[in-house]
Amino acid sequence: MTLIKSISGIRGTIGGAPDEGLNPLAIVKFVSAYATFIRNHTTVKTNRIVVGRDARISGYMVKHIVIGTLTGMGFDVVDIDLATTPTTEIAVTMENACGGIIITASHNPKQWNALKLLNERGEFLNAAEGNTVLELAEAERFEYATIDNIGKVITDTRYKERHIESVLNLDLVDAEAIRAANFRVAIDCVNSVGGIVIPELLYALGVKEIFKLHCNPHGNFSHNPEPLPENLSEISQLMGQAKADVGFVVDPDVDRLAIVCENGEMFGEEYTLVSVSDYVLSHTPGHTVSNLSSSRALRDVTLQYGGQYHAAAVGEVNVVAKMKETNAVIGGEGNGGVIYPASHYGRDALAGIALFLTNLARKKMKTSELRATYPTYFISKQKAELTPTTDVDAILLKVKEKFAQYDITDIDGVKIDFPDKWAHLRKSNTEPVIRIYSEAHTMKEAEEIGGELIKIIKQMCEAPEAPE
Asked: Does residue 106 carry a catalytic annotation?
């Protein structure tokens, strides 16, 4: 059994002894600490916290423990039940709530669940705030409400419709153009909340023919829930059978969006953000942000429109902070996460689908033709295996010095920007490895630069010969 505590929340496998796994005792302790943090820091007076969940098998159990703990801490709970992560984020602001908890382990398998923590803006806690919650939980510095001050539960399952309505009301979403295009759309919602909300969004946008895969939200995922090409063979085959124009795949909490071309080929998860940004920038000139491990294609597209591209440390909270700092009009992560500030500061597959379909409809292109308009890059993901005693920080410093003649970014590991490619080296927090992400115009080049760096790291790790 596994339990991982981090600044972004708590996640783990369900079950196990009291000191292992994501069990009721761990949930109570962590939620109590979060409620204490919110009580000490919120500026909102509603005394409400929003709770939403994906369709995981354990979600019902975890939700009731979370709600019971929050009411025991004296907060009123707005229970929106089955809801996407972006829906829960939007609900926090619509409720003018003090915060929110999303019960989801994102793309992890069914035995996992997690608590993601939101502030009063419906955004994830930053590193300092997350550390405070961890400290409160470790020290058990919290106090429960007396009988006259326990909270109440308000059930409101209408936020799915409110979220869809907010997407339709975005200035750059053109439902009329989408309706006129008569798109045939295939979807794979991996047996979670996307199976509820994505069809309703598409119908609201004017899509009449939808071909559904795994839309029953029972939480017993039909395949690995991470929307990567190796997990999407079914929808790839369905595209030709259904003569669909485009396919959409979401993860269990619907904050990541993968797109499939009409010929069954993957649009590329890195290119979800690139394509949506292309459309947004064509109407709203400005700056963009993605994390250091995302494709250079976003930078290329941004420069075409006269904007500036900025890189952030890996992690949604870091991307959002950089977007606010630079007043970016669009941003996100290369894993299919689109953050559109005109909607809200969170990855949102619903907004991504609506903006992508609008662009596709207006350009009157096939999905594969649209993909061909963007710069072609390939990303390789490798890792350098180290020993537990290796000083990883010292190795990264040596790498930085060795490649000092190139553009170096060290806000999150070391990223080396070569003229025609890049490599990003990140220290793992869980095992003695350095993860190496590299991108070039061919996969061979991307893999070669990653392999070259692994060799260099290995050489740096070799102990010098002892003097005679």
From this structure: yes
